[in-house]
Structure formats: C-alpha cells, structure tokens
Write a structure and sequence with these properties.
CATH topology of the largest domain: Cytidine Deaminase, domain 2
Distance between the termini: 52 Å
Order of helices and strands: EHEHEHEHHHEHEHEEHEEHEEHEH
CATH architecture of the largest domain: 3-Layer(aba) Sandwich
Shape: globular
Helix content: 25-40%
Number of strands: 13
Number of helices: 12
Structural class: alpha/beta
Mean pLDDT: 88
Largest sheet: 6 strands, mixed
Strand order of the largest sheet: 6-13-11-9-7-8
CATH class of the largest domain: Alpha Beta
Radius of gyration: 20 Å
Low-confidence stretches: none
Strand content: 15-25%
CATH superfamily of the largest domain: LpxI C-terminal catalytic domain
Number of domains: 2
Length: 290
Amino acid sequence: MPEQSTINANEETRRLGIVAGGGGLPKAVIDSCVANKKPFFILALQGFTDPALIDGHPHEWVRLGALGQAFSILKNENVTDIVMAGRLRRPSLQEIRPDARGMQFFAKYGTAVLGDDGILRAVSRELELEGFTVIGAQDAAEDILVPQGLLTKKGPQKRHKQDIAHGWKIASLLGEADVGQSVVLQEGLVLGVEAIEGTDALMKRCTALRRAGLLPVLVKRCKPKQDLRADLPTIGLETVETARDAGFAGIAAEAGKTVFLDREAALAAANKAGMFIYGVTADDINDFQA
C-alpha cells in the first residue's frame, strides 16, 4: 500500500485538477474556474470526456485504468485539489485495462468496487494517499445545487406528492444497494427504477409503461451512504426536455445534494411545458405523507 505523501506547491502555482467525465458538470466547474481566475488542469478520460469541452484549456488524456500515469500527470502539473466531475459509464474490468498502479488498486480493493459508489470512494481514498485533497463539484463551482422548495410556476398535486414520498423511500433502497439514484412513479405504481442505463434512458423506457390518469413523476435522491464529493445526482435542461417528451408531470430532486445544470434554461423549459421541479428534503417528505 502506498504511504501517505504530501503535495508541495506554492499558492501561486496551485491548481485544481478536474477529472472530467461526460455530461455538463465538467463544463460548469471549468466555467467557474475561468470566471474566478482559478488555475486548473483537466485530466480528460478517453471515451468519456467531450473533446470540445477541453479545447483551449490545459489538459492531458488518459485511459480510465492508467492510475499510475494519471497520478504522475497531476503531480507534474502542480495539482493539489481534485474534483471528479461528470458521468462515467460503469466499465467492465476488461474495458479498464489497468496499468501496474491500477492492478495494485484492484488487488487491494477487489472487483467489488466496480459499483458506482464503491469505485468512487476507493479512487478518492487512493488520491488522498497520493497527497491530493478530493473536493466536491459543489465546492469547486458556485450555486450548482438544487435549492429547497418549488422552483417552477406549477406545483405538484396531492397525488404527485404521495408518489414523491413513495419514490423517496424506493430510491433510498436503490442507493443502499449502489444501483441507482432515480425512480419513476405514477399514481402509486413504480414504472421503473434506474440501473446502468441512466436517468434519461429510464424516462424514455417508462414512456411505453404510462397508464391513463395523472402523469408520472421522476424522483432523484442521493444514495444514503454516498460520498458527497463525487457522483451526486444531477438534473438539467436535458433532463427536463426528456421528461417533457416522455409525458411527465414533473421532477422531484433532493435539495442540497443534487446538481442543477443549466438552471435558468431548465426552469424556463419546465414552465413552458407546464411541469414542476421541486427541491425536496426529508421534512417535505413528512409533509407529503401527512
């Protein structure tokens, strides 16, 4: 096991290292760094990072299993803090093709860490052993989390609130098993739960399963034991557009623990479609069940 090391860097040369996956979260972090003139460096993951996203910014490409190379690059670039931002399609061990340092990683943790939360916790631990400080995207980019309460002009009906409360419990069970973060419900019926396909594919799949009556709702929440520094549930304009096209009434997402990308555009699209977006807390769930 590697001994705890220390990253030495002057304040003038300190950089935030952005391990960039897919989706819009890496862009939000990069834009925040640019706006605040914070030095940063992007570790782009082959097969996941959008090349257009990193164009013109300092970066290096690595494959997912090349941990030794990744650690060396980050240290050479004077990176001290690390944020893991963006989606990573859950890989197989064959796809990872670990290098020597990666092989040490799997010898230490086993293949059981290939679940979303398990592998992220393990990678965070190894980064810290290498001397880096792992932070959350919410610490690297300002005002990106879903606030509490109703965010749209239209709110959920009483039956929708009951579905949200039911979905909250089911999503907790999914999270305990490190399966997914989302569930779709309609008038008490569970139309689908998120697995490897992701939230947008889940909603599209549920389109054909809709019943007559009130429209379904999407419920997203953080896993109960989730490391809040990585893989927070995320909604954004794409989520709203997919929900709209799938015929959903609205979206309920855990307040303070869900990333909200393209907020202004997403809320405008939801209002235009007559959908609701609600930032939910445990207190809200108690009220919805009353």
